[in-house]
Specification:
The protein is mostly helical and 225 residues long. It contains twelve helices and no strands. It folds into two domains: 123 residues, Serine Threonine Protein Phosphatase 5, Tetratricopeptide repeat (Alpha Horseshoe), CATH 1.25.40.10; 87 residues, Tetratricopeptide repeat domain (Serine Threonine Protein Phosphatase 5, Tetratricopeptide repeat, Alpha Horseshoe), CATH 1.25.40. α2 packs antiparallel against α3, α6 packs antiparallel against α7 and α8 packs antiparallel against α9.
């Protein structure tokens, strides 16, 4: 049910992540397992913005998978991620939907939540986030997804002026990165002192050396108290 390849990921170290997956590739026992690893190497390339290399790896994986396999779920999911990262959400959306349906049918529930999470980024954020939250609610072992899902929902509500709902979503997000969302939402609601407190906490907790505009925004909110 949980994503067994997740432990090989370190998003702050793509070279190390690639090396671990390539080492893991030497020990796979089936074509479908090989395909799964290839999709993760494709995701590494997507994060490097080398989309051609990513699609080439997905093409290779696609030749190895059975139609109803976990490898198929990952091919759909990672092909969709490549399209979205390259600026083509319309191409990504049906792939995420197909990945969600197949993963849920197979019982690959962590991948199903991942697919719902990704679908929410390209189409109907409220519906897809709630689909993911329903799966997590029924399967507490997937609780690590609560943060990303509630955070996405919070920003969707914020961007649509639904500030009370946004605040509720951010307050359900356990990760530190929700503090900036809380700060902006509280500020929009006119709750200046609470907004300043959340902004100060965000500045303390989150790495921000390469996000100058974010830092300036949080500092401005913090200074209003």
């Amino acid at each position: 049910m949980e994503d067994r390849l997740r432990e090989l990921w370190d998003f702050a170290d793509l070279d190390g992540t690639e090396a671990r997956f390539r080492a893991f590739l030497e020990n796979v026992e089936s074509d479908d397992e090989r395909a799964e690893v290839l999709t993760q190497l494709a995701r590494v390339e997507g994060l490097r913005e080398d989309f051609t290399a990513g699609h080439t790896l997905i093409d290779e994986a696609e030749t190895l998978i059975a139609p109803d396999s976990t490898g198929r779920v990952r091919v759909l999911l990672e092909r969709g991620r490549l399209h979205r990262s390259a600026g083509d959400p319309a191409a990504a959306q049906p792939l995420f939907v197909a990945a969600f349906i197949l993963a849920k049918t197979r019982g690959d529930l962590s991948l199903a939540v991942d697919a719902a999470h990704m679908a929410s980024l390209v189409d109907d954020p409220e519906t897809w986030t709630k689909q993911g939250l329903e799966l997590v609610g029924a399967n507490p072992e997937l609780a690590r997804w609560l943060g990303p899902l509630h955070n996405n929902l919070g920003w969707y509500y914020f961007e649509n002026g639904r500030f009370d709902e946004a605040l509720d979503a951010f307050e359900k997000t356990p990760e530190a990165y929700a503090e900036s969302g809380k700060a902006k939402t509280l500020h929009a609601l006119g709750r200046t002192a609470e907004a300043a407190q959340a902004a100060r906490k965000a500045l303390e907790l989150l790495p921000h050396d390469s996000h100058d505009e974010w830092v300036e925004e949080m500092e401005a909110i913090a200074a209003e108290a």
